Amino acid sequence: MKIASRVAQAVGAGVLTMATPVLAADRIALVIGNDYRGATGGWQELKNADNDAKLIRDALIAQNFAVTPASNLPREALDRTVDAFAQEAATAKIVVVY
Predict the structure, then answer these.
(1) Which tens digit of pLDDT belongs to each residue from 47-58?
(2) With contact defined as beta carbons under 8 Å apart, do 22 and 94 qualify?
(3) Which of 21, 22, 49 lies closest to 37 in space, CA to CA?
(4) What is the pTM (predicted TM-score) of this model?
(5) Does residue 31 contact residue 53 with C-beta atoms inside 8 Å?
């Protein structure tokens, strides 16, 4: 299952409206940056995905998000990271996936 759909299932994919302040613990983000996309399939290596992800991670941390970084992970490790994040996202108020 694709990353976005796994997280959307966990969160409910609804529209978020805020009536109360959101605590830092309620703001979570998964930031993925994979420069290397595998030896099969004919995909080229990306040059800045990991650096871009680090910039986004830092910006989200500055906004009080708890960030789960996922940089240059093999497919199986990325799947485990996404699954764990999806479980955490089910109870968060604000969820960001980059």
Answers:
(1) 899 999 999 999
(2) yes
(3) 49
(4) 0.72
(5) yes
